[in-house]
Amino acid sequence: MTRSAILLLSGGLDSYTAGAIARVDGFRLRALTIRYGQTHVQEIEASRRVARALDVAQHVELTLDLRGIAASALTGATSVPKDRPIDAQDIPVTYVPARNTIFLSLALAWAETLGAHDIFLGVNALDFSGYPDCRPEYVHAFETLARLATKAGVEGTSFQVHTPLISLTKAQIIQRGLALGLDYGLTHSCYDPDPQGRPCGHCDSCLLRAKGFAEAGVADPALALLR
Fold first, then answer.
1. Alpha carbon 46 to its chain's center
2. Which of 3, 8, 12 is nearest to 119 (CA)?
3. Most confident of 44-48, 90-94, 197-201
4. What is the DSSP string of 115-174?
5. What share of the chain is helix, strand, coil (3-state, %, to 5)?
6. Within 13 Å and on the Cβ side, how many CA atoms surround 218?
7. What is 76-130 written as a DSSP string?
8. 3-class DSSP assignment, residue 35
9. Predicted TM-score (pTM) of this structure
10. How many CA atoms lie within 13 A of 117 on its CB side?
11. Measured distance CA(99)–CA(96) in Å, rounded
């Protein structure tokens, strides 16, 4: 019997790839995208394109404005840094306080409502920008929380947070996605796009994406937007 899973879908290449892997593994996907007060709508639009490409059973866009309680460059509290050396030991100003914990909690609520036991999250612990909620120990801790904090968990259900990309480099993620036939032109990664939605090419996310495509030896479809 096909199992249902919740996919936290941002519209970026990581969540797209994680969703594609979930499909290959036989899961029927329901996608959850959060409007959390981010300063641009491009990733929401990208999530819709990706959801269609993944043929998800349902795509929920949930509005939960975090701007009043979670200050970050991504919610407009300060400017997005550009062309900086990326140090995995440094937690940058683009970190949104407790974002993955909030998002996973919402996914958990939906999973428990549906009787699903699986959540897919496209976090990565190698080519990441110092985010504490992208680490394996964090994911394992959340699984423990899910078991202790839910009716289903107390009654014996084990919830699993699948992180199929967590030990891959960005180049390996891209290569895996291309092997699955993914069109990364559907995705959006930039933290600070221009008014036309074109990627800046200089923020942490753009730099990590460019590095990944270069190391994978393939062209990034997003570069066409810079011309």
1. 12
2. 8
3. 44-48
4. T--EEE----SSS--S-GGGSHHHHHHHHHHHHHHSHHHHTT---EEE-TTTTS-HHHHH
5. 45, 10, 45
6. 19
7. TSSPPP-SPPP-TTS--TT--TTHHHHHHHHHHHHHHHHT--EEE----SSS--S
8. strand
9. 0.95
10. 11
11. 5
Q: How far apart are CA 8 and CA 2, in angstroms?
A: 19
Domains of the chain: 3-226 (3.40.50.620)
Residue 208 CA to residue 98 CA, distance in Å, equals 22
Average pLDDT, the chain: 94
Model confidence at 173, pLDDT cuts 50, 70, 90, reads very high
Q: E strand or H helix at 28, and its extent?
A: strand 27-35
- Give Dmax over CA atoms of the chain in angstroms: 56
CB atoms within 10 A of CB 61: 14
